[in-house]
Amino acid sequence: MSLEWKNNPLRALAGLAWPITVSSLSYSVMTLVDTILVGHLGRAELAGVGLGGIMAFLFLCFSIGLLRGANTLVAQAVGADRAGEARGYQGAAIVIALGLGLLTVFVGQLAAGLLGRFAASPAAGHAAASYLRIRILAAPVMLLFVAFREVSYGQGLSRAPMRASIAANVVNVVLAYLLVFVAGAGVAGAATATVLAQVVEAGALAIPALRSPSGWGLRAFTRRHLGALWSLGAPLGIQFTLEVGSFGLLSVLISGFSDLDMAAHQIALQVIHFSFLPAFAVAEASAVLVGQAVGARRDDLVLPVARLALRVGAIYTGVCTVVLVFGSRVIVSAFTGDPAVVTTAVALLHIGAVFQVLDAANLVGRATLRGAGDVRYSATVGVITSWLCTPPLTWLLGYRLHLGARGGWLGLCLEIAAGAALLWWRLHRKGWHAAALASRAVATDGRDAAFVRAVS
């Protein structure tokens, strides 16, 4: 591959990042809509949707992380001009997505019956269980969308997933309003609207793919493609699951403080997503460019792309910091009129303002290493920092020092700072190079996936 973007990487980065931003916001926007609408029903309903939504996402994390491996493998195959390999990885991603999606539905239904025990009140527990029981039904179609999305990103095509996400969110807004307020279905109505919207989102990518000459790639994939995707993606899945598990534990701990703390946490979390996810999109775009560079045997481009993405992400998150410092009360007031919830959520957003730029560094460092195929180091760093920082400090600062939700968010600050430092140390020392060689061999030459494990 000639890597046409190498002379103007900023344009390529921006061209990939803004559609990824829209696509990445999809899941969070759907939960945000549910949060805003249900927030007008009461504090318990708001806390329940917060807990149920986080748990639904937690059950999907391993699969989402694993499917991100398709992004790297396809990008490296594209960089090496091996289109047949890219189609094989697409077929493997779809098979894995549907299989894990069905398993997730089963596990989620079992978990919904237990979720109410972790809420601060019976009303919040009932709302959380109802929301999770319905929301998790969308797991197969949601993961099917992720599979198509990650393959598209690896090919350098990010606009089709963006259009699918826009259509889905329009459907979600309309249906959620009708079901929550007109039909009076409450929390269950919000969850049902989101499930139907995710069906639209997946269909917008899956149906056109069926009409293409290569279809879904189901005839092109082999056991080798499945093995390579599992080998590269499983560490990402484990990392993502454990990191979100740490965050899920944070939410469970906060829900045990009070409905007020959980409601404020849910609002602050939704606001932070709108600064986090564009930075995440820049990082994902850098992973695509790095993957294509590694596939084309241009490892010298890895660090320049990472530094460029860091500058772009830092500028954006710096602006978000200013907005959160001076505008948080106005933003939170759009969610609720409860003065106590507003005060607590504003305090959380001020803490979030502190770690914005560091979060950009963390995201870019992680994505760059993944694009190069160095998934095990970044996974180890992510898991260790998340579990050593956030839950213990939530307990110490939140329970023992009576800081409530603020204690957990202070733990997030330490987690993000430590992770960013360790990831960029790895990048600058070029500790990723051996993993890049192994990943390139699997993605472009079809060698056995065990070679990746042996080298990396």
Polypeptide structure, described:
- By secondary structure, the chain is mainly α.
- It is 85% helix and 0% strand.
- It has helices at residues 9-39, 43-79, 83-115, 122-135, 139-154, 159-182, 186-211, 223-257, 259-295, 302-333, 339-354, 356-371, 375-400, 405-428, 433-445, 450-455.
- Helix 5 packs across helix 7, helix 11 (339-354) packs parallel to helix 14 (405-428) and helix 12 (356-371) packs antiparallel against helix 13 (375-400).
- The chain starts with 8 loop residues before the first helix and ends with a helix.
- The model is unreliable at 447-456 (pLDDT under 50).
Number of strands: 0
Order of helices and strands: HHHHHHHHHHHHHHHH
Shape: globular
Main sheet attributes: strand count, strand direction, barrel closure: none
Measured by DSSP, the beta-strand proportion falls in under 5%
Q: What is the CA-atom radius of gyration, in angstroms?
A: 21 Å
Q: What is the mean pLDDT? A: 86
Helical/strand content category: mainly alpha
Number of continuous helical runs: 16
Q: What percent of the residues sit in helical stretches (DSSP H or I)?
A: over 70%
Low-confidence segments, ≥5 residues, pLDDT <50? 447-456
Distance between the ends: 25 Å
